[in-house]
Design brief:
Length: 314
């Protein structure tokens, strides 16, 4: 199957290049979260099939974790992972197809308390024999005997059977099973699998710039009781390009959004089917921005429509 990786085009890093800290935020008309919000806990949402709650902000590892870092680069990645966990977040998503990302995470998480991490990975092979071999290789690279979530990556077969995944769950190799897609051409297949197999989790590309998943996939996941993770929540960072030089609207303070990262992530978290967002970053400052989106209020249906209307006029 095909792997999907975020583009580096029009990245948030490029958007903020040339200035740092408060200077950048002033340049784009943003204000930092107030202290009360910064000190509040990150919200959690329930995994429907179990009732277990997980924090709504996670970390994706495509691209930037794909090569083994050394020296200062490793220190920066280590800080991102440690900062995520120290803020009470715990979901980290990777894949067997993300280069060396599983091995990199195995190294970075080696000194962390297992209970502090909700570790998710993805395999490409949906067969019993091939999938198990790939999964065991992932466990070896991650240095874990069990992951929290095992996902079949970019499901393409509408008749895909998740029985092998449930068997591995029964053997204690994973706690939850799921499927993913980031390809529009595979959306019909993904919907068929979700409705028939009712996985614990479903991961899909979804952002304010690309709301295709709202039409059928999010309702299907909601009906099946699948927790939803949103890949590419910044739409290959196209959302930042769209608001370059613009201020966050004052009315966004109604749901505690004062920065663009908060605005874009809170839009997703305001959807009833979305459980958590998993933006990828290797920048500790950007991680802090992402985590802040999990605090305070989320937009209701009326406010989300206002966000859509605002964005479509840019």
């Amino acid at each position: 199957m095909r792997a999907s990786f975020p583009s580096k085009t029009s990245s948030r890093r490029d958007f903020m290049r040339g200035a740092t800290g408060a200077a950048v935020l002033c340049a784009v008309g943003e204000a930092r979260p107030v202290a009360a919000q910064a000190d509040s806990p990150v919200a959690t949402k329930a995994i429907p099939h179990s009732g277990e709650h997980i924090p709504v902000i996670g970390l994706g590892t495509a691209n930037d974790f794909m090569t083994r870092p050394k020296g200062a680069e490793r220190d920066k990645l280590k800080k991102v992972v440690d900062d995520l966990l120290s803020q009470g977040c715990k979901l980290i998503d990777t894949a067997s197809s993300y280069g060396e990302a599983e091995s990199v995470l195995g190294d970075l998480l080696s000194d962390q308390d297992r209970a502090k991490v909700f570790l998710a990975t993805k395999i490409e092979d949906g067969s019993r024999k091939g999938g198990l071999a790939e999964f065991r290789h992932s466990l070896k690279r991650l240095r874990y005997q069990q992951v929290d979530l095992l996902q079949l990556h970019n499901v393409e077969n509408p008749h895909q059977d998740l029985a092998p995944f449930r068997d591995w769950k029964g053997q204690g190799l994973c706690r939850f099973v799921g499927v993913t897609t980031t390809f529009k051409g595979a959306y019909d297949a993904a919907e068929a699998v979700i409705r028939r197999e009712k996985p614990d989790f479903f991961q899909v590309d979804y952002s304010l710039a690309d709301r295709t998943a709202e039409k059928r996939l999010l309702p299907a996941a909601h009906d099946a009781g699948a927790a939803v993770l949103t890949a590419l929540p910044y739409g290959h960072n196209s959302v930042f390009a769209a608001v370059r030089g613009k201020r966050v609207p004052d009315w966004a303070r109604e749901f505690d959004a004062t920065t663009w990262p908060e605005f874009f992530l809170k839009f997703l978290l305001g959807h009833e089917a979305v459980t958590a967002v998993i933006p990828g970053t290797t920048n500790p400052a950007h991680l802090a921005d992402n985590v802040s989106a999990g605090r305070g209020r989320f937009p209701d249906a009326r406010q989300r429509q206002a966000m859509i209307d605002f964005f479509t006029t840019l």
